Amino acid sequence: MSAYYARPLLYAEVVEQIKEKIASGEWNYGDRIPSESDLAEMFHVSRATLREGISFLVNKGVLIRKRGIGTFVGQREEFQGGIETLLSITQWISSHGYEPGTEHIHYFQRPGTVVEKDLFPDRSGDVVAELHRVRTANGVPIIYCIDVIPKQYMTTNPNQFGESLMEYLENHWGQTVLLAHSAIEVVMATREIAERLGLTQGAPLLKLKQIHYNSVMEPILVSQDHFVPERFKFEIVRRRP
After folding, report:
1. Under CATH, which number does the domain 79-235 receive?
2. Contact at 8 Å (CB) between 179 and 86?
3. What confidence tens digit (pLDDT) does each residue in 94-141 have?
């Protein structure tokens, strides 16, 4: 009985380890993966369990099996979804079955720009807090985030920004993000962003720019999220008027 229930667990571990090697860039699109015997030894599983994991990923299109040649990495699995639904990045990563995380938190105060002073109400944009973070999925860097909030929502403990900024605003300040005005553009990765995401400087990124509003339609957060295009697919549902 115990052996019967152990196999699905091992099979799932094989799937996750293979996906992590692809997501980290250790195995790239088109690469031939090691032989079954080598992988079974690498993952410390039987060849039968390994075949189950590989077959699962072949059915998902993550791997491609070529008879008589070997098994190859297919297209990288994408994070995808419609952007008409307002989810935090933490929620988005979790909804795809990955463990969300945060690295390289950099938080500082600065004078607000002319645009920020005009945007945030009651002179709250005179001084703002700017937050830089790298968001990860199963430990793999996938998004570089730059967020700006007005001075009344500042904190002396940057670790409070470890996860969802929307949850931080709601839990600590009672500010619920109701909607966001959004725009997408293609930008080139700066040296800092490229280093954090494991890319080359100048690599193309999708930048999602958003102004978030609370329940009384006051701007409370401006965000610029930089996505690696190979790992994300944005969808929009359009309807006739």
Report:
1. 3.40.1410.10
2. yes
3. 877 778 889 999 989 999 999 999 999 777 778 999 999 999 887 888
